[in-house]
Write a structure and sequence with these properties.
Layout: E1 5-9, H1 15-28, H2 43-55, E2 60-66, E3 69-78, E4 85-92, H3 101-115, E5 121-127, H4 131-139, E6 143-150, E7 153-161
Parallel strand pairs: 4-5
Antiparallel strand pairs: 1-2, 2-3, 3-4, 5-7, 6-7
Helix pairs in contact: 1-2
């Protein structure tokens, strides 16, 4: 990848591209959870959500951009029944897998969580078969909380605390 990837917080002007990226990621992989409301979400509604998220000390959307196109995303979403806890989700367009973008996005989210947010804990769930992702999360400091079988898949919940 000769061109420079920019990793930054999502802006309201990203709403249309963000919706397109989420639809693309939903088609390219089964390892990302996408909001069920996505098909009905308008650009205006997405822009409003980005605004609300940017005001939150517990939620964040960070994007990776290449030549003006969004190519990756990491989200931190507050867990409603656990104070100071957010769930992390990350996705990168398939053609750019295994180039360090997911790691860079998660690293940036962790930096935001430690320096800007009011979060004390980040959790995530990953398929055990996604060995590369599990390795990245461990390398960045996540620890396994539990492993369980669900619908024929082994799931791992991981966490990092500050």
């Amino acid at each position: 990848m000769a061109d420079e990837v920019v990793i930054r917080g999502a802006q309201t002007s990203d709403a249309e591209q963000l919706l397109s990226l989420m639809r693309q990621l939903e088609m390219e992989t089964t390892t990302i959870a996408v909001d069920e409301a996505l098909p009905d979400l308008t650009i205006t509604e997405e822009a409003e959500q980005i605004d609300l998220i940017n005001e939150s000390p517990y939620d964040q959307i960070i994007v990776a951009e290449l030549e003006g196109d969004l190519i990756g995303i990491v989200t931190l979403q507050a867990v409603l029944d656990e104070s100071e806890t957010a769930e992390l989700g990350v996705g990168v367009v398939k053609e750019l897998w295994n180039q360090g973008l997911g790691t860079a996005l998660v690293d940036e989210a962790l930096y935001w969580a430690q320096t800007v947010s009011q979060l004390r804990r980040i959790i995530l769930t990953v398929y055990a078969e996604n060995v590369a992702a599990v390795h990245v999360y461990q390398k960045l400091g996540f620890q396994t909380v539990w492993v369980k079988q669900e619908k024929g898949q082994r799931l791992i919940e991981m966490k990092i605390e500050y």
